[in-house]
Amino acid sequence: MKEIVEKINAAYEAFQKDAAAQIENGNKAAGTRARKASLDIEKLMKEFRKASLDESKK
Fold it and tell me: Rounded to whole angstroms, how far apart are CA atoms 21 and 45?
């Protein structure tokens, strides 16, 4: 589960960087990367939820 949290943090950092580049500089490519990162974060959150539920059942 710790590994999943680390992946979420890394994906969120990438999202923040690219989202800021899009907002501040109007960088369209950064916007595309930010949207992709948001999808990755969503998938990782679902994995975390599943792992968390499994841990709580032990």
Answer: 24
Tell which residue, 41, 51, 46, 42, has the closest CA to residue 1. 51
* Torsion 52-54-57-58 (CA) sign: negative
Name residue 33's amino acid: R
The predicted-structure confidence for 1-57, as pLDDT tens digits, reads as follows 999 999 999 999 999 999 999 999 999 999 999 999 999 999 999 999 999 999 999
What DSSP line would sit under 15-38, residue for residue?
Answer: HHHHHHHHHHH--HHHHHHHHHHH
- Closest by Cα among 57, 33, 43 to 4: 43
pTM of the model: 0.85
